[in-house]
Amino acid sequence: MGCFTLFNSCGGLKSQFHEVEYNPVEIVDGILRYKIDSITKKKDSLVLLRKSVVKEGPEKSLAAAALDSLEKIDSLIKKNSSVLEKLEGYYKSNYINVSDDTLLWAKAEAGLKSSVNLDSLANFDFSYRTKGVFRKIELPFTFYDPETGIDKSYKTIALSISGNSKTDVDFFTKYPGFGIWALLILAFCCCVAMTIGVCIDAGNELAELVSNKACQKTISYWPSFVICVLLLAAFFFVIKNTLYDSDSIKDLYFMNNLGSKILFISIFGYAAAAFCFAGMISTASYAKCFKDKVLAIPDQQPIQTAINGEIDGLKNSLLNQALSATEIADIQLKLTAKTAALAASQLLSANAVAAESDHAASKQLFRKFFYAIALLLALLVFCTGTLYSAVDNLDFIRMIKSDMGYSPARHDFIFLYAALHTLLILLFYLPAQLQLGGLPEGEAKKGFLNMLGEQLKKTTELLVVGAPLVAGFAQWLLNMIFEN
Question: Is it the case that residue 197 has pLDDT exceeding 70?
Answer without folding.
Answer: yes
